[in-house]
Amino acid sequence: MAPKPDVSEVRKNQIIQAAINVFTRQGFHGARMDDIVEESGLSKGTLYWYYKSKEELIISILDHIFAGEFAKMEALKNENISARQGLHKFLEAYIAELQKMLIFAPIIYEFYALAFRNKTVRVVMQRYLHTFISIVEPIIQYGIDNGELRDVDAHQAAIALGAQLEGTLLLWAYAPDILSLEDQLRSGVKLLFDSIIISEDFEIFENGGENASL
Amino acid sequence: MAPKPDVSEVRKNQIIQAAINVFTRQGFHGARMDDIVEESGLSKGTLYWYYKSKEELIISILDHIFAGEFAKMEALKNENISARQGLHKFLEAYIAELQKMLIFAPIIYEFYALAFRNKTVRVVMQRYLHTFISIVEPIIQYGIDNGELRDVDAHQAAIALGAQLEGTLLLWAYAPDILSLEDQLRSGVKLLFDSIIISEDFEIFENGGENASL
DNA sequence: CATAATAAACTGACCGGTCGGTCTATTATC
DNA sequence: GATAATAGACCGACCGGTCAGTTTATTATG
């Protein structure tokens, strides 16, 4: 059936990686297909053999970047531990994941801009945010129900947490001179939780986020 | 000097408004100069008479949108009132201003993406964030010094506040179905402040942000 | 009648996408 | 085990539409 060994997965990855590099450097519009061809070390014909258009390539990158994130977030669901532990574990994982995504920052903000005029992109972004809330909100609600947390609106609190994380990333991306990303993520989250948590001496992060190493 | 009545200011505004409309609908790249020509009701020659390139037009819009914001933010500086009142007043003004900027949301996120590869855009965005911090941080510090607020790091708290506002706007832009913008802005900010403020029964917003009208 | 202002036809660089054709590993057949 | 047939993989010159920016002619006004 296969007269030649199947290299298609290798090629697709090769192309996606080249595209990510070029798009990160030059933006979706500034990047020419010929640039991606050059970066990949393949030919234009081969690129188009695997991806039928520039748009398809962009959407594939969207999937490539976010698919793993969904899986990782979902994996953190449904652990029957305390709200404190659940939030701690989730936030540690999320912050670690954010660090890894920093290299994609220019592409991610490009996606945010694209989302306003491309349905597919918009849907993925929405799913990302929904997934986040669907994990954090139940943990907070659980904490409220069992007396660990104050009786706040779990939904609003979950969104506030998401906003804090996304907003911190945004501020850091444009004004890295005024904040250390990891420190600020921890201290911002700590401020939010100090208002929710009932036990006064609780620290969501070991060091209280005051002088975490970046 | 002017054999004809000087209409240049009128024309520039006419063109900027048309450009904002078209860019909002179609994005910076999707918008053609001919589209802006059509929207403005002028001709291409006239457009290029006032703006020498597409880029100059984009930068002018950047200035147009943010110039007013700087002025408004600066106007709120140096009012010797309590931290509580200062923050209240600033946040009310900021939230009101945000509402007015919502129509530009697609353009603003386009600017965020552009900032990664355009120095001018990056500098304006940075100045915007710096200005925000330079107003909020002293108010918080003042509150700490006079005992109104807990002894937190004023700089980190100011950034956390900025992140909360920007992050909420971002979440709302992409998932308006899960939050009411104004409610969430108020409740998110309230959560942050509940952890900073010393007096237990203080409400930064009259209604505590629980059921504000949108 | 000088000139700011306007109109609209025009130009050409650029770039996404195509297409005719080639290469080579594998398999079927004798 | 030689060879013909097959098909997936690959190449790069080229095409054609698009669109930012230019040119040139005209108009209106003080």
Backbone shape of chain A: elongated
What is the CATH C level class of the largest domain in chain A, in words? Answer: Mainly Alpha
- The stretches of 5 or more residues of chain A where confidence is low (pLDDT under 50) are 206-214
Order of helices and strands of chain A: HHHHHHHHH
Largest sheet of chain A: none
End-to-end separation of chain A in angstroms reads: 53 Å
Look up the CATH topology of the largest domain in chain A: Tetracycline Repressor, domain 2
- Name the chain pair whose interface involves the most residues: A-B, 51 and 51 residues
- The CATH architecture classification of the largest domain in chain A is Orthogonal Bundle
Share in β-strands of chain A: under 5%
Measured on Cα atoms, how large is the radius of gyration of chain A? 21 Å
Mean pLDDT of chain A: 87
Residue share in helices of chain A? over 70%
Oligomer: homodimer
Number of helices of chain A: 9
Number of strands of chain A: 0
- Category by helix and strand content of chain A: mainly alpha
Counting structural domains of chain A, the number is 2
CATH superfamily of the largest domain in chain A: Tetracycline Repressor, domain 2
Provide a descriptive summary of the structure in words:
The structure is a homodimer of 214-residue chains. With 214 residues, the first copy, chain A, is mainly alpha-helical. Chain A has two domains: 1-52, Arc Repressor Mutant, subunit A, CATH 1.10.10; 64-214, Tetracycline Repressor, domain 2. Chain A is built from nine helices and no strands. Chain A has helices at 8-30, 33-40, 44-50, 54-75, 83-101, 105-114, 119-145, 154-174, 181-194. The longest helix of chain A has 27 residues, at 119-145. The first copy, chain A, is elongated and about 60 Å long. The N and C termini of chain A lie far apart (53 Å). Mean pLDDT of chain A is 87; it is low at 206-214. The interface between A and B is large, with 51 and 51 residues. Chain A binds a DNA duplex (30 and 30 nucleotides) through residues 1-8, 11, 32-34, 37, 42-46, 48-49, 52-54.
